[in-house]
Design brief:
Glutaredoxin, two-stranded antiparallel sheet, alpha+beta
């Protein structure tokens, strides 16, 4: 019985692998494999500590700015809010994060009023000056105070691109300012979510096969079961072109 079940899972897994979608065609810049923007350690506008791992399973969109930004920040957040509408139900599988480069003025309270005004699902993130600098360096973001006309006032110059991570937490896309329109966000996020769903299905099938393999072999012989799974995984990878 277990062997028949294993055979069924093998066939199902091979079908999933064979039906893998072709490589996604993005409209923004594909930066897959980049060694920067690997993680962050900040606090959201509700006071909860956050890292990239907290959003595993969702496509994550990260944009750096500040609440008193007169143009680029509200324009980008508005485009992302429109994209969320365009995604329909898939929007619940996307998390937009707005990281302030002006923690001196952007308190958690201010972020909690500003960021969700564009979409209630958006989160504002902040850190102290050191955490902000570390995060900006990791993401290759440049920012600098510029004195204003009034005494003590200032604006912030900052990089204006958007980073998009797949549901596995890998940096995949960089959206330049000129590319950041709702249609581009909708198209590329859908491509990432589609690819992520296939990866999740394949992983579930492999996990099921692992459980059956342990049942087929003597429970004391875990090494043999592990070798069985490894050989199967290689076969699946060969079929799927991976």
């Amino acid at each position: 019985m277990l062997r028949m079940r294993a055979l069924g899972i093998v066939l199902l897994t091979l079908v999933i692998a064979a039906c893998a979608p072709s490589a996604p065609k993005f409209e923004s810049s594909d930066v897959t494999g980049s060694s920067f923007a690997r993680d962050f350690a900040l606090t959201d506008h509700n006071g909860s500590p956050r890292t990239l791992a907290d959003f595993r399973g969702k496509a994550v969109v990260v944009f750096f700015g500040y609440t008193q930004c007169p143009d680029v920040c509200p324009t980008t957040l508005t485009a992302l809010a429109e994209a969320m509408k365009g995604l329909g139900p898939d929007a619940d599988r996307v998390q937009v994060l707005f990281v302030t480069v002006d923690p001196e003025r952007d308190s958690a309270d201010l972020l909690s009023k500003y960021v969700p005004a564009f979409d209630r699902r958006f989160l504002g993130l902040r850190g102290d000056a050191d955490a902000t600098a570390r995060t900006a360096k990791e993401f290759k973001i440049l920012y600098q105070k510029q004195p204003g006309k009034a005494s003590g006032s200032y604006t912030m110059d900052h990089s204006a691109g958007t980073f998009i991570f797949d549901p596995q937490g890998r940096l995949r896309l960089y959206v330049g300012l000129a590319q950041g329109v709702p249609d581009v966000f909708v198209h590329d996020l859908r491509e990432l979510l589609k690819a992520g769903q296939h990866t999740r299905l394949l992983g579930t099938a492999l996990d099921q096969l692992d459980l059956v393999a342990v049942g087929i072999f003597d429970e004391r012989d875990h090494r043999r079961a592990a070798l069985h799974r490894a050989r199967f995984a290689r076969d699946v990878a060969a079929v799927s072109g991976g």
